[in-house]
Amino acid sequence: MTPASDLFHRALAALSCGDVDRAEQLTRELLGSEVDNAEAWSLLANIYQQCGFFERAIGPATRAAELEPDNIQHINTLGYLFLLLGRWKEGEEWYSKAAAMPEAPPTIYVNHAWALVELGQDSAATKQLRKALELSLESRVTTMIQEAPRYEKLVPILEKIT
User: Fold this and answer.
1) Residue 2 class from Cβ within 10 Å (0-12 exposed, 13-18 middle, 19+ buried)?
2) SS3 of 44, please?
3) Which residues have C-beta within 8 Å of that of residue 67, sequence separation ≥ 6?
4) Gap between the Cα atoms of 54 and 52, Å rounded
């Protein structure tokens, strides 16, 4: 195992144990030696997100997406952070990119619909929800939307199309 790999795995272990300070310290140590390590930037964004520091997570998430622009997970993370911050337009832009990628999972389309409905684009949100339903079991998407308060504005649209 390389020193960088060791640091990464130790940071993951610390995070999984709830030691976010140690996870951040180890991740920053890794980034000190490998500034272009997209996975480390993504991990740092995840650490901040788990702590509720959404604004602080934007920088590392952006860097991960810049380093690996075709990695749908990095794009999803960045889009989701913008949605959590209520920055609907920026979130929509990232989810638009993610939704255009091959093999995007249903949650990409649901979150894209969330951004669109918040921007008052119900017709476009409906299209994204239809795509999510096409890619997953209807009950799974329906349950996800009905159980998460953040998706409350999607419920009426979902009821119209199911």
Assistant:
1) exposed
2) helix
3) 36, 37, 38, 41, 74
4) 6
Which one-letter amino acid corresponds to residue 100?
Answer: A
Determine contact, residues 125/156, Cβ cutoff 8 Å: no
CB atoms under 10 Å from CB of 98, counted, come to 23
Q: Summarize pLDDT for 76-127 with one digit per residue, the tens.
A: 999 999 999 999 999 999 999 999 999 999 999 999 999 999 999 999 999 9
In terms of pTM, does the model score above 0.85?
yes
Q: What is the pLDDT of residues 3-25, one digit of tens each?
A: 889 999 999 999 999 999 999 99
Place of tokens 């740092």: 44
What is the separation of C-alpha 144 from the centre of its chain, rounded to a whole number of angstroms?
A: 16
DSSP state of 105: -
For residue 42, which of 77, 5, 87 has the smallest C-alpha distance? 77
